[in-house]
Amino acid sequence: MCGRFSVQEKYVNIARIFDLHADTDMDDGASSDCSRFPGDSHPVAVADQNCFRLISLKWGIRDVFRKMLINARDDRIFSSPLWRNMYTRRCAVPVTGWWEWDWEKRMHHFSLNPESSPFFLAGLHRKNEKRQEREFVILTTRARGKIRDWHERMPVCLDSSNFRLWLSDKSYGIGQAVGHLASFSFHHIFSEQSGACVFSQTRSRHHQSQTANRGSGNPHLQKTIKGFDSTARQGDANHERFQNKKDKAGLL
Cys-Cys crosslink for 105: which of 41, 45, 201, 225, Cβ 3.0 to 4.6 Å? Predict the structure, then answer.
């Protein structure tokens, strides 16, 4: 799954790199502090008539049981009425990396390149008529490459060669987008295990201080310290659900 992603580049710069139209105030509160969380609004790319535009959408939608959904599995796109109805309303989420939690509750940060240059995550969006706001989810698929060592799922990644196809060419389906993942070399940027990550599932102030010191040489890592507690709680919940699924399947 994808429960959190990072953006280490200003959105106006991302718009310039990928030739996207963007609102003049798109960078308000969205400078190079890394963390992006479900429930918040984020700039995402959509096809808009004759151009591609960054617009602000809220991450997460409520299903009929009012459960917050932040991901859509690629193998359930056509079996779920919710995702099937949204399938033609596509978006691409600009990111520089994403996070996963492993079986031992350690956090790992992944990217398409060691420099953490911007790329996209495939998504679907809709308008919530009741709330009068637009919402999106991120598409996930079976983990590839190194990511399988830590997690069973991963987001569907797009780059400059296919994100426009995903947005505007309805004949370019989820199968082609997933197949394109074979051309990527996924990079494990850092993790708690490597001693380079500024996050930990241990709540003690002493340990938080230690992890903050480990990130002192990197301004991006220092800024991710904000929201430590909420991220750790989310990591616990994600891990517990994943472990329960493994237990039921007899895999642990």
Answer: 201
Element (H, E) at 211: helix 205-214
Q: DSSP string spanning 189-245? A: EEETTTT--S--S---HHHHHHHHHHTTT-HHHHHTTTTHHHHHHHHHHHHHHHHHH
User: Cα 7 from chain centroid?
Assistant: 10
Whole-number percent of the chain with pLDDT over 70: 71
Q: Where are the alpha helices (DSSP H) in 76-124?
A: 81-86
What pLDDT score was predicted for residue 1? 65
Cα separation, 12 vs 158, in Å, equals 19
Amino acid type, 123: G
- 122/9 Cα distance (integer angstroms): 18
Rounded to whole angstroms, the Cα distance separating 6 from 199 reads 13
What one-letter code names the amino acid at 207?
H
Angle among Cα 238, 145, 230 to the nearest 5 degrees reads: 20
Residues present in the chain in total: 252
Q: Which pLDDT score, from 0 to 100, does residue 71 have?
A: 96
Phi and psi dihedrals of 231, rounded to 5? Answer: -65, -40
Phi (first) and psi of residue 77, to 5 degrees: -60, -45
- Give bridge partners of residue 61 from the DSSP assignment: 69
CA distance 238 to 151: 11
- Say how many CA atoms lie within 13 Å of 155 toward its Cβ: 31
pLDDT for position 80: 93
In the chain, how many H helices and how many E strands? Answer: 7, 16
What's this model's pTM, rounded to 2 decimal places? 0.76
